[in-house]
Amino acid sequence: MFCISCGTSLPDQARFCSSCGTQLPVAAGSATVQQQPSPVSSHHASPLVVQPRPAQQQQVYSGPPPPPSIVQQQTANALIAPGGQPTAAFNRLAAEVFYALDANVAPQRTGALEVSKLISYRTLSALSVPPYYGEYVLPTYAAVILIELIPNQPPTAPVVSWRGWHQFLLQKILAEPGQTYVGLTRLFGTFGMPVWFGAGDFPRAADPLAVGKEQRFRAEIYALAQRSLSSGSSGGGMLGGLFGGGGSSSGGGGKMSKMAAHAMLKLATQGSANIVNASLPAGTGFVAPFPGF
Fold this sequence. Notes:
The protein is an all-alpha fold. The chain contains eight helices and no strands. It has a domain at 82-278.
Protein backbone atom coordinates (compact mmCIF):
# COMPACT_ATOMS: atom_id res chain seq x y z
CA MET A 1 0.00 0.00 0.00
CA PHE A 2 1.02 3.64 -0.44
CA CYS A 3 0.66 6.68 1.82
CA ILE A 4 -2.33 8.75 0.72
CA SER A 5 -0.40 11.95 1.47
CA CYS A 6 3.18 11.51 0.23
CA GLY A 7 3.00 8.27 -1.80
CA THR A 8 5.59 6.38 0.26
CA SER A 9 5.40 2.59 -0.11
CA LEU A 10 4.34 1.03 3.21
CA PRO A 11 3.51 -2.45 4.57
CA ASP A 12 -0.12 -3.46 4.29
CA GLN A 13 -0.45 -3.56 8.10
CA ALA A 14 0.86 -0.02 8.65
CA ARG A 15 -1.45 2.40 10.44
CA PHE A 16 0.74 5.50 10.15
CA CYS A 17 3.12 6.68 7.38
CA SER A 18 6.74 6.28 8.48
CA SER A 19 7.70 9.23 6.26
CA CYS A 20 5.13 11.96 6.95
CA GLY A 21 3.16 10.54 9.90
CA THR A 22 -0.23 10.58 8.18
CA GLN A 23 -2.77 8.19 9.69
CA LEU A 24 -3.69 5.57 7.13
CA PRO A 25 -7.28 4.39 6.55
CA VAL A 26 -7.96 0.79 7.47
CA ALA A 27 -10.05 -1.07 4.93
CA ALA A 28 -12.98 -2.97 6.33
CA GLY A 29 -12.16 -6.59 6.84
CA SER A 30 -8.40 -5.98 6.74
CA ALA A 31 -8.11 -6.58 10.47
CA THR A 32 -10.19 -9.18 12.24
CA VAL A 33 -10.76 -8.93 15.97
CA GLN A 34 -11.13 -12.31 17.55
CA GLN A 35 -13.51 -12.32 20.49
CA GLN A 36 -13.12 -14.82 23.27
CA PRO A 37 -16.16 -17.06 23.39
CA SER A 38 -18.22 -16.72 26.55
CA PRO A 39 -18.73 -19.84 28.57
CA VAL A 40 -21.81 -21.63 27.43
CA SER A 41 -24.07 -23.28 29.95
CA SER A 42 -24.86 -26.84 29.28
CA HIS A 43 -28.51 -26.04 29.76
CA HIS A 44 -29.01 -22.63 28.11
CA ALA A 45 -27.05 -21.22 25.16
CA SER A 46 -26.81 -17.46 24.75
CA PRO A 47 -28.38 -16.17 21.55
CA LEU A 48 -25.85 -15.13 18.85
CA VAL A 49 -25.82 -11.38 18.38
CA VAL A 50 -24.58 -10.21 14.98
CA GLN A 51 -22.86 -6.86 15.23
CA PRO A 52 -23.32 -4.53 12.23
CA ARG A 53 -20.18 -4.04 10.14
CA PRO A 54 -18.79 -0.52 10.17
CA ALA A 55 -19.11 1.49 7.00
CA GLN A 56 -16.11 1.01 4.73
CA GLN A 57 -13.87 4.07 4.57
CA GLN A 58 -13.15 5.36 1.10
CA GLN A 59 -9.49 5.61 0.14
CA VAL A 60 -8.31 8.58 -1.86
CA TYR A 61 -5.85 7.61 -4.63
CA SER A 62 -3.14 10.21 -4.97
CA GLY A 63 -1.13 8.44 -7.71
CA PRO A 64 2.31 6.86 -7.61
CA PRO A 65 5.20 8.52 -5.82
CA PRO A 66 7.14 11.05 -7.89
CA PRO A 67 10.01 9.56 -9.92
CA PRO A 68 13.58 10.35 -8.86
CA SER A 69 15.15 13.40 -10.40
CA ILE A 70 16.84 12.65 -13.72
CA VAL A 71 19.69 14.97 -12.82
CA GLN A 72 20.55 12.79 -9.84
CA GLN A 73 20.63 9.57 -11.84
CA GLN A 74 24.19 8.51 -12.61
CA THR A 75 25.32 5.02 -13.47
CA ALA A 76 28.48 3.40 -12.20
CA ASN A 77 30.05 3.73 -15.67
CA ALA A 78 29.02 7.34 -16.28
CA LEU A 79 31.54 8.88 -18.68
CA ILE A 80 30.97 12.51 -17.74
CA ALA A 81 30.71 13.88 -14.21
CA PRO A 82 27.92 16.36 -13.38
CA GLY A 83 30.38 19.24 -13.81
CA GLY A 84 31.23 18.14 -17.35
CA GLN A 85 34.57 16.58 -16.42
CA PRO A 86 35.62 13.16 -17.76
CA THR A 87 35.50 10.27 -15.32
CA ALA A 88 37.66 7.17 -14.88
CA ALA A 89 35.18 5.31 -17.10
CA PHE A 90 35.79 7.84 -19.88
CA ASN A 91 39.55 7.40 -19.60
CA ARG A 92 39.10 3.63 -19.88
CA LEU A 93 36.88 4.02 -22.95
CA ALA A 94 39.27 6.44 -24.66
CA ALA A 95 42.26 4.17 -23.98
CA GLU A 96 40.54 1.04 -25.32
CA VAL A 97 39.53 2.73 -28.57
CA PHE A 98 42.97 4.33 -28.99
CA TYR A 99 44.82 1.03 -28.56
CA ALA A 100 42.38 -0.82 -30.83
CA LEU A 101 42.83 1.68 -33.66
CA ASP A 102 46.59 1.88 -33.19
CA ALA A 103 47.01 -1.90 -33.20
CA ASN A 104 44.69 -2.76 -36.08
CA VAL A 105 44.96 0.09 -38.60
CA ALA A 106 48.11 0.88 -40.59
CA PRO A 107 50.55 2.30 -39.76
CA GLN A 108 50.30 0.02 -36.75
CA ARG A 109 51.58 0.61 -33.22
CA THR A 110 52.93 4.11 -33.70
CA GLY A 111 51.55 5.36 -30.41
CA ALA A 112 49.50 8.01 -32.22
CA LEU A 113 46.45 8.30 -34.47
CA GLU A 114 47.18 9.19 -38.07
CA VAL A 115 44.51 10.28 -40.53
CA SER A 116 44.02 6.67 -41.68
CA LYS A 117 43.13 5.60 -38.13
CA LEU A 118 40.70 8.46 -37.62
CA ILE A 119 39.06 7.62 -40.95
CA SER A 120 38.73 4.02 -39.75
CA TYR A 121 37.18 5.30 -36.53
CA ARG A 122 34.52 7.06 -38.58
CA THR A 123 33.82 4.18 -40.96
CA LEU A 124 33.70 1.58 -38.17
CA SER A 125 31.30 3.89 -36.32
CA ALA A 126 29.04 3.96 -39.42
CA LEU A 127 29.85 7.64 -40.05
CA SER A 128 30.58 9.06 -43.47
CA VAL A 129 34.02 10.52 -44.09
CA PRO A 130 33.87 14.17 -45.19
CA PRO A 131 35.76 15.10 -48.36
CA TYR A 132 39.35 16.29 -47.85
CA TYR A 133 39.20 14.99 -44.30
CA GLY A 134 42.95 14.87 -43.75
CA GLU A 135 43.84 17.92 -45.80
CA TYR A 136 41.35 20.46 -44.45
CA VAL A 137 38.64 19.06 -42.15
CA LEU A 138 40.76 17.46 -39.44
CA PRO A 139 43.34 20.30 -39.23
CA THR A 140 40.51 22.83 -38.99
CA TYR A 141 38.72 20.79 -36.35
CA ALA A 142 41.91 20.45 -34.29
CA ALA A 143 42.53 24.18 -34.47
CA VAL A 144 39.01 25.13 -33.35
CA ILE A 145 38.47 22.43 -30.71
CA LEU A 146 42.08 22.73 -29.47
CA ILE A 147 43.09 19.12 -30.08
CA GLU A 148 46.75 18.35 -29.48
CA LEU A 149 48.63 17.19 -32.58
CA ILE A 150 52.06 15.60 -32.90
CA PRO A 151 54.50 18.43 -33.76
CA ASN A 152 56.61 18.66 -36.92
CA GLN A 153 54.06 16.90 -39.12
CA PRO A 154 52.86 18.10 -42.55
CA PRO A 155 49.95 20.53 -42.02
CA THR A 156 47.73 18.56 -44.40
CA ALA A 157 48.53 15.20 -42.71
CA PRO A 158 47.96 15.82 -39.00
CA VAL A 159 48.65 13.14 -36.40
CA VAL A 160 46.59 13.15 -33.19
CA SER A 161 48.48 12.47 -29.96
CA TRP A 162 47.31 10.40 -26.99
CA ARG A 163 46.13 13.54 -25.21
CA GLY A 164 44.62 14.91 -28.41
CA TRP A 165 42.53 11.75 -28.84
CA HIS A 166 41.10 12.20 -25.35
CA GLN A 167 40.24 15.81 -26.23
CA PHE A 168 38.66 14.66 -29.52
CA LEU A 169 36.51 11.94 -27.95
CA LEU A 170 35.43 14.14 -25.05
CA GLN A 171 34.22 16.78 -27.50
CA LYS A 172 32.25 14.19 -29.47
CA ILE A 173 30.59 12.74 -26.37
CA LEU A 174 29.62 16.18 -25.11
CA ALA A 175 28.43 17.53 -28.46
CA GLU A 176 26.86 14.37 -29.97
CA PRO A 177 26.21 11.86 -27.15
CA GLY A 178 23.61 9.71 -28.89
CA GLN A 179 25.48 9.42 -32.18
CA THR A 180 28.79 8.75 -30.41
CA TYR A 181 27.24 5.98 -28.29
CA VAL A 182 25.86 4.20 -31.35
CA GLY A 183 29.15 4.58 -33.22
CA LEU A 184 31.29 3.27 -30.38
CA THR A 185 28.99 0.28 -29.93
CA ARG A 186 29.49 -0.62 -33.59
CA LEU A 187 33.26 -0.12 -33.33
CA PHE A 188 33.54 -2.36 -30.25
CA GLY A 189 31.55 -5.06 -32.03
CA THR A 190 33.79 -4.90 -35.11
CA PHE A 191 36.93 -5.34 -33.02
CA GLY A 192 35.33 -8.10 -30.93
CA MET A 193 35.61 -6.05 -27.75
CA PRO A 194 33.02 -6.47 -24.96
CA VAL A 195 30.65 -3.52 -24.75
CA TRP A 196 30.70 -2.63 -21.06
CA PHE A 197 29.00 0.77 -21.38
CA GLY A 198 25.38 1.62 -22.09
CA ALA A 199 23.35 4.53 -23.40
CA GLY A 200 22.72 5.67 -19.83
CA ASP A 201 26.44 6.21 -19.33
CA PHE A 202 26.42 9.01 -21.92
CA PRO A 203 24.97 12.49 -21.31
CA ARG A 204 21.24 12.70 -21.93
CA ALA A 205 21.62 15.88 -24.00
CA ALA A 206 24.38 17.76 -25.73
CA ASP A 207 26.47 20.28 -23.83
CA PRO A 208 25.79 23.82 -25.14
CA LEU A 209 29.47 24.80 -24.98
CA ALA A 210 30.49 21.73 -27.00
CA VAL A 211 27.76 22.44 -29.57
CA GLY A 212 29.08 26.01 -29.81
CA LYS A 213 32.53 24.66 -30.68
CA GLU A 214 31.03 22.56 -33.47
CA GLN A 215 29.31 25.65 -34.82
CA ARG A 216 32.56 27.62 -34.76
CA PHE A 217 34.28 24.79 -36.62
CA ARG A 218 31.69 24.88 -39.39
CA ALA A 219 31.89 28.66 -39.56
CA GLU A 220 35.66 28.44 -39.99
CA ILE A 221 35.33 25.79 -42.71
CA TYR A 222 32.82 28.00 -44.51
CA ALA A 223 35.03 31.09 -44.23
CA LEU A 224 38.05 29.11 -45.42
CA ALA A 225 36.21 27.93 -48.52
CA GLN A 226 34.84 31.40 -49.25
CA ARG A 227 38.31 32.92 -49.04
CA SER A 228 39.63 30.26 -51.39
CA LEU A 229 36.93 30.90 -53.97
CA SER A 230 37.32 34.66 -53.80
CA SER A 231 41.12 34.92 -53.76
CA GLY A 232 42.34 31.55 -54.97
CA SER A 233 44.26 30.87 -51.77
CA SER A 234 43.36 29.71 -48.31
CA GLY A 235 44.17 32.81 -46.39
CA GLY A 236 43.85 34.57 -43.10
CA GLY A 237 42.14 33.90 -39.86
CA MET A 238 42.82 31.13 -37.42
CA LEU A 239 43.92 28.72 -40.14
CA GLY A 240 46.23 30.93 -42.16
CA GLY A 241 49.24 29.37 -40.49
CA LEU A 242 47.93 25.89 -41.15
CA PHE A 243 47.29 26.26 -44.84
CA GLY A 244 49.76 28.95 -45.80
CA GLY A 245 47.52 31.91 -46.58
CA GLY A 246 47.72 35.58 -45.85
CA GLY A 247 45.82 37.52 -43.25
CA SER A 248 46.37 37.76 -39.54
CA SER A 249 48.31 34.49 -39.25
CA SER A 250 51.57 33.62 -40.92
CA GLY A 251 51.39 33.91 -44.70
CA GLY A 252 52.50 31.55 -47.38
CA GLY A 253 51.22 30.62 -50.77
CA GLY A 254 49.20 27.46 -50.34
CA LYS A 255 46.04 27.17 -52.40
CA MET A 256 42.82 25.21 -52.11
CA SER A 257 41.34 24.07 -55.40
CA LYS A 258 37.89 25.22 -56.39
CA MET A 259 36.67 21.63 -56.11
CA ALA A 260 37.92 21.45 -52.53
CA ALA A 261 36.44 24.85 -51.73
CA HIS A 262 33.01 23.81 -53.03
CA ALA A 263 33.24 20.59 -51.04
CA MET A 264 34.05 22.57 -47.90
CA LEU A 265 31.07 24.87 -48.45
CA LYS A 266 28.78 21.88 -48.82
CA LEU A 267 30.28 20.33 -45.71
CA ALA A 268 29.60 23.46 -43.67
CA THR A 269 26.02 23.88 -44.86
CA GLN A 270 25.17 20.21 -44.28
CA GLY A 271 26.20 20.61 -40.67
CA SER A 272 23.06 22.52 -39.73
CA ALA A 273 21.05 19.34 -39.20
CA ASN A 274 23.88 17.95 -37.11
CA ILE A 275 23.81 20.97 -34.83
CA VAL A 276 20.05 20.65 -34.36
CA ASN A 277 20.26 16.94 -33.56
CA ALA A 278 23.13 17.46 -31.15
CA SER A 279 20.95 19.71 -29.03
CA LEU A 280 18.27 17.03 -28.63
CA PRO A 281 18.26 14.49 -25.78
CA ALA A 282 19.79 11.16 -26.71
CA GLY A 283 17.29 8.70 -28.15
CA THR A 284 14.71 11.26 -29.31
CA GLY A 285 15.45 10.69 -32.99
CA PHE A 286 17.12 12.73 -35.68
CA VAL A 287 15.77 15.65 -37.65
CA ALA A 288 17.29 14.40 -40.91
CA PRO A 289 20.21 12.25 -42.07
CA PHE A 290 23.51 14.04 -41.65
CA PRO A 291 27.14 13.12 -42.24
CA GLY A 292 28.72 14.32 -39.01
CA PHE A 293 32.32 15.44 -38.74
